[in-house]
Specification:
Chain lengths: 315, 465
């Protein structure tokens, strides 16, 4: 039989395929060889609790990477610093992940105590109501400790100075952030501005956040996600722009509205000045030494499963 | 004695390899789809099964993915081409014994996969989870299939190769290579390179195997079922070369947002968008072939499965290039939308075309008529409606999730909002698996129930002629 008509065809199929393999498999191997960075996960730390590298094998064996990714993206808020290409040099097989049915675990290490992680692996619903994570109660002690040790190692090479910051469009690093700062004429550290903000707070915020900003306004009892308690030390690290961003854009998933729609920029800056002046719960002012021992301690309510922590900027 | 033993396990009877492959595929589909159903239910009731590692969601998922991809779809494909290639070449399969040997090897791989993956013995690479020994066996099986198919084509009794054969021969050339590259058995690549090669394989098991084989089967089935000539041979060649050129480099679009090189992302995304060309070409050819024959869909169930598959192929391939672009991927990636898309391709398109081929090939191999047309209709409607429900619920869940990520919402907030859609997905799973069991019952009654053999001699004559 004469097979000449198909000789060119089979040659073309062969060539095409080899070119494609060359350009998308071999070329990346040669051209893309990032140097290991210091921000990668450090598995060599001494730990009496378990073996992080063996924990990584457990992580792979139990298929954690099907629901948890391990790379942060530019647009992710509240998941810690961005990854670099060099962070992954020693990560084989890769656990980048393909779906996020659960949270991203790039910087999970240290977010929760090890005992919490263990409880969460054994009975997820007991510490995270509503979670659909499978229970891994069948892991033996060694596997469990190694796995928790691995989780606590994630992101240990990446350190952060500020955990919560407004998106770039509010910060002076972008033209829009610079314009925002240029338009601002309110001195957010002044008493006058703070006083001006008090009235705005009473009218717009107090119904949920309470007159003193403790998150205990009359509306708060009806809300599933409780309003923020501004006396928590957490809020003392908020920058002006972060306050402004939260007020303007609200908190998605809660009843906190986008006040950018109703308040002018000037009013929002006054509000920022007032919120910055709210006292921290441990900072109590006394007028004389005689009052020193007479203070009644602040009684915090007992947290039940229904009363979750106020929103804390992600996670 | 010796020869009868060999005849029993490595039968030389014409059509036996095809039949055995199809029946094995059906058998593994029940186990793999069943595992998918249990995993789906566990999204709604996470504490339903407790303390059994083999039945925890991630282990079920590994088995589900490998079971449907390598067990159900691949075996059904091989069974179908073992019938289609000889019928297009007007001769017999090159070696029926070799075909049956491959069938046993493949079934042993599946038993190994079942035992290993459910126990968490995995290489930890998505779509390439099988342990090394099973990888070798798959490669051996693929090479024996390639030998058999190429041997059949080399000894053909017709001069011109029909377009289906182009697709089958192409797939049998490049898929073994893709599989060997994708397993990374001997190498431990640095993390991101591992990801690049992993997604080269993860996408090309679709692009260079499921798509090219499935499209080839559609090219075979549509003209046969409608008794109409193919609309255009030129278009079919354009579609073939388009897929061969543009499909293979697309893998990196799965990790567009990770720190892999930008030029590689650009190649992947541009190729993904270019895939519009072969897809529209192929579908134009299909739908123009159907011109004037659409009425047949009402009565011919085999054709209805095939046309449904072509319809879902259209939707899949409109979604694919769209969600591979950066500005859509930015929003939709990581969400259940992608899971819906994967099911649209593998269940909606390729499982439907495999089922169509099964319904077409089996009576012609055994000479027995289907036991019940009613059961085929039930299978169709359960699978079709079940799949639509799954697709819609996963897509909505994915949009909620994507919005959650885009607005920086904590996971524990949006995860509460998608609980109803997990529940609907579990119901859709029940429908699909029930349909598959009805299918299996129908096959059992057809092959092993009492029935007068009528067509066997005729169809065998047709094969020999």
């Amino acid at each position: 039989m004469n097979s000449n008509p198909y000789r060119i065809g089979s040659f073309a199929v062969f060539t095409t395929f080899i070119i494609i393999i060359f350009s998308t498999v071999l070329m990346p191997m040669v051209l893309f060889q990032p140097k290991p960075t210091d921000t990668r996960n450090n598995y060599n730390l001494e730990s009496s609790a378990g073996d992080a590298l063996r924990g990584r094998q457990i992580y792979v064996r139990e298929g954690c990477f099907y629901c948890h990714s391990q790379f942060t993206r530019l647009q992710d808020r509240g998941y810690g610093p961005l990854v670099k290409a060099g962070d992954f040099v020693y990560e084989a097989p890769h656990v980048l992940g393909t779906a996020r049915t659960g949270p991203d675990l790039t910087n999970e290490g240290g977010r929760f105590p090890s005992q919490w992680q263990k409880a969460h692996l054994i009975e997820p619903r007991s510490v995270k109501p509503g979670s659909i994570m499978p229970s891994f109660s069948y892991l033996n002690d060694r596997d469990m400790n190694d796995l928790v040790c691995y989780i606590q190692t994630l992101g240990n090479g990446r350190t952060v100075s500020a955990y919560v910051e407004a998106p770039d469009e509010y910060m002076p690093v972008t033209p829009s952030g610079q314009a925002l700062l240029a338009r601002r004429h309110v001195d957010t550290n002044s008493d006058a501005a703070s006083n001006a903000g008090r009235g705005i707070f009473t009218q717009n915020c107090a119904a949920c956040h309470g007159l003193e900003g403790w998150g205990n306004g009359p509306n708060s009892i009806t809300l599933e996600k409780k309003p923020a308690n501004f006396s928590r030390p957490f809020y003392k690290q908020y920058s002006d722009q972060m306050w402004f961003y939260r007020i303007s854009e609200g908190v998605p998933g809660t009843r906190m509205p986008r006040f950018g729609e109703t308040l002018t920029e000037e009013q929002r800056w006054y509000l920022v000045a007032y919120l910055k002046s709210l006292p921290q719960d441990k900072e109590v002012t006394i007028n004389s030494l005689a009052q020193l021992n007479k203070l009644t301690p602040t009684k915090l309510p007992v947290l039940t499963k229904q009363e979750w922590e106020p929103h804390s900027g992600g996670h | 004695m010796q020869s009868s033993f060999i005849d029993k396990f490595l039968s030389n009877e014409p059509g036996s390899a095809s039949r055995n492959f199809l029946l094995s595929a059906l058998w593994w589909s029940l186990w793999a789809m069943g595992a998918g159903l249990i995993a789906g239910i566990e999204f709604s009731a996470p504490d339903l099964i407790h303390n059994i590692p083999q039945l925890s969601m991630p282990h079920l998922r590994m088995w589900h993915v490998n079971g449907v991809a390598i067990g159900w779809l691949s075996m059904a494909y091989v069974g179908s081409i073992y019938y289609m290639v000889p019928s297009l070449c007007k001769n017999k399969l090159w070696s029926e014994r070799l075909g049956n040997f491959t069938m046993w090897a493949w079934n042993i791989v599946m038993i190994g996969a079942f035992a290993n993956l459910l126990n968490g013995n995995t290489e930890g690479r998505e779509y390439a989870e099988l342990p090394a020994l099973l990888d070798y066996m798959v490669v051996v099986a693929l090479i024996t299939i390639a030998i058999n198919v190429y041997g059949t084509v080399a000894t053909r009794n017709v001069k011109k190769l029909y377009v289906s054969l182009w697709y089958f021969l192409g797939s049998m050339f490049w898929f073994p290579l893709v599989y060997i590259i994708g397993q990374r058995t001997f190498v431990a690549l640095p993390g991101l390179n591992d990801g690049i090669v992993g997604w080269f394989y993860g996408h090309n098991i679709l692009g260079m195997w499921f798509t090219t084989m499935g499209v080839g089967m559609m090219y075979y089935l549509l003209p046969r079922l409608t008794k109409a000539p193919l609309y255009s041979h030129g278009l079919s060649m354009l579609g073939f070369w388009g897929i061969a050129l543009f499909y293979a480099p697309t893998g990196t679009h799965h990790i567009t947002q990770s720190p892999v090189p930008e030029w590689l992302k650009a190649i992947a995304i541009i190729s993904s968008v270019f895939l519009f060309v072969p897809v529209i070409t192929v579908l134009t050819n299909f739908f123009m072939t159907m011109k004037g024959k659409w009425g047949l869909v009402a009565s011919d169930m085999t054709l209805r499965f095939a046309i449904t598959s072509a319809g879902f192929y259209l939707i899949t391939c409109m979604q694919g290039p769209f969600q591979a672009t950066r500005w859509v991927n930015w929003y939709l990636h990581f969400s259940q939308w992608v899971v819906g898309h994967a099911h649209l391709a593998l269940l909606g398109t390729f499982s439907f075309i495999s089922t169509s081929a099964f319904y077409y090939v089996m009576p012609r191999l055994t000479g027995r008529d289907w036991y019940s047309m009613g059961l085929i209709r039930q299978h169709y409607w359960l699978k079709f409606l079940g799949f639509l429900l799954m697709m819609i619920s996963l897509t909505i869940a994915g949009l909620i999730q994507a919005a959650g990520w885009a607005f920086g919402m904590p996971v524990d907030q949006w995860s509460l909002q998608i609980r109803p859609y997990w529940f609907l997905r579990a119901i859709s799973g029940v429908m699909i698996v029930l349909g598959q069991f009805i299918f299996a019952y129908n096959v059992y009654k057809t092959l092993y129930g009492k029935q007068v053999e009528t067509k066997k001699s005729a169809s065998m004559e047709a094969i020999k002629a």
